[in-house]
Amino acid sequence: MTISVHGLAVSRGIAIGRAVIVASSRVDVAHYFVQADQIESEIERLRQARNAVVEEIVKVQQSLHELGPNDAHPELTALLDVHLMLLQDEQLTSGVKHWIVERHYNAEWALTTQLEVIARQFDEMEDPYLRERKADLEQVVERMLRFMRGVALPVAADARHAHDSAEAPLVLIAHDLSPADMLQFKQSVFAGFVTDVGGKTSHTAIVARSMDIPAVVGARSASHLIKQDDWVIIDGDAGVVLVDPSPILLAEYGFKQRQGEVERERLSRLKNTPAVTLDGQRIELLANIEQPEDAVAALKAGAVGVGLFRSEFLFMGRGGNLPDEEEQYQAYRRAIEGMQGLPVTIRTVDVGADKPLDRGASRAGEDHLNPALGLRAIRWSLAEPSMFLVQLRAILRAAVHGPVNLLIPMLAHASEIRQTLALVNRAREQLDSAEVPYGHVKLGAMIEVPAAALTIPLFLRHFDFLSVGTNDLIQYTLAIDRADEAVSHLYDPVHPAVLHLLASTIAQCLERGKGVSVCGEMAGDVTLTRLLLGLGLRSFSMHPSQILAVKQQILRCDTARLQTWAQSVLAAEDPAALMTD
Ligand code: PEP
Ligand code: MG
What's the whole-model pTM score? Predict the structure, then answer.
């Protein structure tokens, strides 16, 4: 019987495929397909890992035995017996083999998939003692994974190409994924994503959107309702997931999927069309990127530059090992060269809130704190000046290779502005005294906190341009955690308060002849294009996948007429009601 699960639509399109349930803690396991002739060696890798772990446990048992009866820990001995038993369990071994032989999963993926299958059975057990054995199973699997990481490197494979069998596409179902996890999946086999938690503008959702594959977040119990290998339809337009769909539904959604492809094909013809409105206003369409390699997609979509390079993705998921100056310089340089002479706006690191450096990195005893209001973005950088200087030097050096704008996130105080500018100068001085060449950069500030939006003249005195981060501006204006699906219905981009802050920021920049752009998700939302144009915005930065659809809207607009309409939206008690006029 088909069941439907409702969540938030975060990335458009339809995906139809078999479910792969991934535990949040194991998303860093490699997922790729092996060729038919590699199946035997994959099974052998598993066998070796299992034997090694068995050996490890037997050794511990022996040393316990040597301690003599008085010092031996009977509980530990019993536990080790359980671990040995689990390692030899037929359901684990034959299940894992099944995923390798039948589905061509690599060994690690097969192992974690089977772990999920068995873990669910444990969850359903009545007996609390047996239920708790799930943790033991997880431990032995963890040991095997660790062994495999050290022993055999996965065959470097672009999974999409290695997957030569005519299998169904796969969709990923997880309780939660961190933004860094999502990034790992960027090169992966998955045709769509569903997570139980997450808001529409959470960073996980943003990365899903950048991957341009259908995704639904905040689907609450999806990862429990959906079983490994179930057929699933992800409707990324409606925010619905259909589990075990009937043949009629499959046919209907298959048709919608093909229609989507036709639409994309049609839009792709706009790539080289200049983004000019009916009344001749030229609009700048820029790309938001997370990795230097995204420059390819940006150019392909016809972006005229990068309006936001979220540099923090270079810093995340590295076990606290931050990239040094050389590594950062090379990464920025790749992005700049990738854009072939077009400007690249590099935002200094914005970690914290829903972008921790590492999964589960919250500090002990701080669970009651709100990270969105804590040491995030520029606050973090100013608290770690030597780290910040490393980044500033790397960006300045990279600016030798093309036009670069340096963008600072989440400023709110004049003192933060002063400290930041002083550090930029210090970075220049350090490069001067080391005789290292560096380039000129334009300096920009993000307007993402109401305090900043209400003190625009201060920012205009110190910066060359402003970029409005509407994702955070909305979050902080309306006191809505952007990553919390429980309050996502209150996350309202056209709330009068948000619109007033946005409109007055744009107006003041225009008056002073300073550049202003919007780089939050509002910029890529086609339902808001007319409003932003009407408010005077001429520069939009968004994921490459959204550029052509926004351009299509722009080509149909007359900004002179939109200006009057936008003023009436601004004055309305319920702006959303006027949005369809
Ligand atoms: C924003 O807040 O709108 C923004 C673009 O920054 P981020 O989404 O990375 O917080
Ligand atoms: Mg932000």
Answer: 0.78
